[in-house]
Amino acid sequence: MPDDKKYAIWFFFDEPITAASARKLGTALLTYSMNRRHEIKFKSYDRFFPDQDTMPKGGFGNLIAFPLQAQPRKNGNSVFIDEHLKPYPDQWEFLSSISKLSEKKVGALTTKLSAFANGNDLGILRRDDEESGKPWERTPVIPLTKEDFPGTMRLVKTNMIYILKQGISQRALNALKRLAAFRNPEFYKAQAMRMPTYNKPRIISCSDETGEYLCMPRGCEPDIMYFSTPNIARYAPGAALGYSILDDIYFSSLTISPKWLPNSLDLTSVVCVYRKMRSSHPASIPNAVSANLLAFMASARASF
Fold first, then answer.
1. What percentage of the chain exceeds 70 in pLDDT?
2. Which residue among 7, 25, 186, 274 is least crowded, i.e. fewest CB within 10 A of its CB?
3. CA–CA separation, 122 vs 203, rounded Å?
């Protein structure tokens, strides 16, 4: 689309429906689209009209510029366009042919689209500890396969973790971005009190992006490893910046004493911890700890 143009997608309903229902449909559709095009920004969730589920006390609602205004039309704006971005010759004839959505259809579409995102119209996001009574549980992730990743995943760790995007699917890049995105509590607080939500984003994202790299906060490193390890052949550092290759898996600056080991670890963490300790301080690993780790790995060898 031309950079100097702004576009809006209009939905038409055959009966009045609540703003909340319409917004849930738009949200679910946007979330579904992000799996196909990860470049869609999270601030797009704030570009719906109506821009809130309920009317603030004493408010007048949203000011919406209707299409087909005379002066803008003279400049080729404010009109409905086809798939080639060309205005329909007869705007009124086009409008009369539009299929309208019923409230039942809106609900069915929202449910169908949300099913691709763990049943949540906003999709899977990083979970705040306060959102769960079990803070040790990891945030669910979008199901992925080996086809979503290249054979070797290259990362560079400096001020952020830079992930080379080449070979990573749109779905996986979207899932990675969501490891560094969370709901904005200020938005939901204002919404619950029926106060204006203007200039309060629904989602706060801490990731960034360049033409070649997805840029993630350093604190997301354990989640990135847990998220992608089952689906790739090996990691490789994009530059010599403190990473050490540990067979086919690497962790950076990992220093863990045996006494810090919890009672249970997922297999990936166990392997990384054991390899790092074995290669750095083999004499410091008590025989009992080594035996337990090796027994754990042996019992799960088929799934690793």
1. 68
2. 7
3. 9
